[in-house]
Amino acid sequence: MQQLxxxxxxxxxxxxxxxxxxxxxxxxxDRARAALAGVYGFCACSFLVSLEPVWQFVGGVTGRPSIxxxxxxxxxxxxxxxxxxxxxxxxxxxxxxxxxARLFLTAGGVVVxxxxxxxxxxxxxxxxxxxxxxxxxxxxxxxxxxxxxYVVAYGIGxxxxxxxxxxxxxxxxxxxxxxGLRVVGTGALLTLGYSAIRLAAVAAAASGSGGPSAATExxxxxxxxxxxxxxxxxxxxxTLAVHTVLRMKTWLRTHRDYRALAPLWSVMHDVVPxxxxxxxGSVTATRSPSWGxxxxxxxxAVEIRDGQWxxxxxxxxxxxxxxxxxxxxxxxxxxxLAAAVTADQLHSAVAAYVRGDPALGPAEYADARTRESLRxxxxxxxxxxxxxxxxxxxxxxxxxxxxxT
Length: 405
What we know:
By secondary structure, the chain is mainly α. The chain is 79% helix and 0% strand. It is built from 17 helices and no strands. Helix 11 crosses helix 17. The radius of gyration is 33 Å and the shape is elongated.
C-alpha cells in the first residue's frame, strides 16, 4: 500500500512545490508562502526517499542501508514544523506569528537532532525496505525510543495543525480558505491513526507480544498517506482558488480579447500601416502569442485608437446621425449605442479613405465622450471589444482590398 500511495503523494507535493517556486519574489516577502513551499518541498523529499529504489540507492551511497528512515523522519519533522508556521502566519498577528514560528522551528530542530543521535545508536543491519524496517527493528529498545519520539512529535504537530485549522476556518470570511483549512484539519487528524498504530506496536513489542503484522503495517501507512494527501490538497485549495485559477482566467481572457480585436486591428493596419509600433512582431501576431500577451493586447488597443485618430478626417456627420437612429430603434443605449455607432463610423471612414475621397474637417466619434469614464488600459480594451463586436470586418476588408494591392 505504501508503494502505491507514495507516488501519488510525491506527485502532489512536487507539483505544489514547483507552483509556489514559480514566484520566487513573492516567497521573499510572504513568510506564510515561503513556509508553505517548505512544507511541499520537505514532504516531496520524505515520500521520495521512502520509495524502495531511492531508499536502496541512498543506503548504498552512504554505506548505511537504513539511512532512509532517518532522512524520511527528518523531512517529515521539518514538514510538520513548517505546517504549524503556515497556520500561525495565517491565523495570528505578525508578532505572535513570528514568536510561534520560532517555537515550532526550534522544537523541530531539537527533535531532528535527537532522532539523529538515536539512529546512530541502532545496530547496523543489512538492507531493508521501508515496509520492513519497523518490523525488523521494533524489538530494539533504542528503536522503540526513536519511534516513540518521532510519533509523539508527529502526533502533537498534526494535532495542533488539525485543531488550529478547524478553529481558523470558523473565523475566516474567505470561503475557499475556510474550505482548504477544513480539508487540512481533517487530513492532519486522520494521520493520528498512524501515530496510534505505531505507539500500539511499540507497546506490544515492549511487552514481548511481538512486532506489528503486515496488515497493521499497511493500515498505518494508509492513515499516514491519505491524511497527507488531504493536508497537501487542503493547502492547495486556496492557492488554486485565490491565485492560480484567477491567473488562468486572466490568461484565457487576455488571449480571447487579443483574438477578438484581431479583425478590427487587421483592417486598421491594412489601411493605416503606420499605427504599428513594432512592425515585425505586431504584423505577424495574428494569433495569440505564447508570451507577453497582456502587453501585446494593450499595444493592439493603442494601435486601434491611433487608427481611429488617423481616420478622423473621413468621418461624415450624416453617417453618425443615420447610425444613431438605427441603433436607437434597435434598443441600444449608453455605451452599447456609442460602440455600435462608432463601428459604423469606422466602416464608412475606411471606405472613404480607400476610395480616395477628399479629407474633411476632423469630426468626433460617437464613443469620444464615453472615453472620459475609462480609467485603466483594461477599461479601454473592454470599450474596443464592444466596437469590434459591431464592426463588419468582412465588408470593410473587401472595400479596403484596393489599398493592399
